[in-house]
Design goal:
alpha+beta; eleven-stranded mixed beta sheet; globular
């Protein structure tokens, strides 16, 4: 990242993985009660911010199928400006790397990075808690990215406890399919009564030599596999090689490795048509210091 008084460039909006994802019930407001562990990745979109003195908020980069007014980065900037009344505006550029509908949290991470970056660039000095509360208005995963640490999450994903996770390398494979989260949540066959787990149960199994699937499962995976043959094919391909799991509501499938070399050895065996990346885990958001 490079910074000056009026710009921040090459700000990483890191992807996330759900090491497990349990749906423990349905709330009176219609949302689902979840338990998950979020893992940050050293891979994601790159955002660039240039402060404007005229108060205008604009997105300089075209994002296919995402109108500017609907883009979470623009909505995040406008929400922050409305909340604080700052006179400043911003010009935002996006190097989009994360696919949409992939379960990697791309839009939510972009929004959180925008909140953190503008908190610094606009000189707002808002607390992390305030930014998390604003982020929840934009999406259930946004507070996690503002929180900025790997976390055990409950509620709709906004109740967060930081956890220490082993350093790992992940091979992430993204089938050429967009999985809409709302459609998976609405499926009648989705499991919604998984037993509530305790954080100490999860932490007791977190060793470097343990693959993340040593704890729990992703309750959405069976539904996604049934509806999207592309995801099923990736999971089947890995079945005799190493454990895999979808992240979020899919479509991305991930495997964990102790070393980068092991992850890359698995990657070179993949069918040539599959998009994939090898990336390291992160302990904290690159912009963590931009809120207190």
């Amino acid at each position: 990242m490079t910074a000056s008084d009026d710009s921040l460039r090459n700000c990483l909006a890191p992807a996330k993985l759900n090491l497990f994802l349990h749906i423990t019930g349905r709330r009176p407001d219609g949302f689902h009660s979840l338990q998950t562990v979020f893992q940050l990745l050293n891979w994601g979109d790159l955002l660039h911010f240039s402060r404007r003195d005229d108060g205008v908020i604009t997105r300089k980069t075209d994002v296919p199928r995402v109108p500017e007014a609907d883009d979470l980065v623009v909505r995040a900037a406008r929400l922050l400006k409305q909340h604080t009344g700052t006179r400043y505006g911003v010009e935002i550029e996006i190097d989009k790397r994360l696919p949409m509908g992939a379960g990697l949290g791309g839009g939510s991470s972009d929004a959180a990075t925008t909140l953190l970056a503008l908190n610094r660039l606009w000189g707002l000095a808002l607390s992390r808690e305030v930014l998390q509360n604003l982020g929840l208005q934009l999406g259930a995963d946004v507070p996690f990215f503002v929180f900025g640490k790997n976390a055990f999450a409950e509620g709709v994903g906004e109740a967060l406890q930081a956890v220490q996770l082993p350093k790992r390398f992940f091979l992430v494979v993204n089938p050429a399919v967009h999985v809409p989260t709302a459609a998976i949540f609405s499926e009648k066959s989705l499991t919604r009564d998984t037993k509530v787990a305790k954080i100490v149960e999860f932490l007791a199994q977190q060793r470097l030599d343990n693959w993340p699937d040593s704890f729990g499962r992703n309750d959405m995976q069976a539904v996604v596999v049934e509806k999207y043959v592309e995801v099923a094919q990736v999971l089947e391909w890995f079945s005799n090689l190493t454990p895999t799991r979808i992240t979020g509501s899919g479509a991305s499938v991930f495997a964990a490795f102790v070393s980068k070399a092991e992850a890359e050895m698995a990657q070179v065996k993949l069918p040539a048509s599959w998009k994939s990346v090898v990336t390291a885990s992160l302990d904290s958001h690159p912009l963590f210091a931009f809120a207190s």
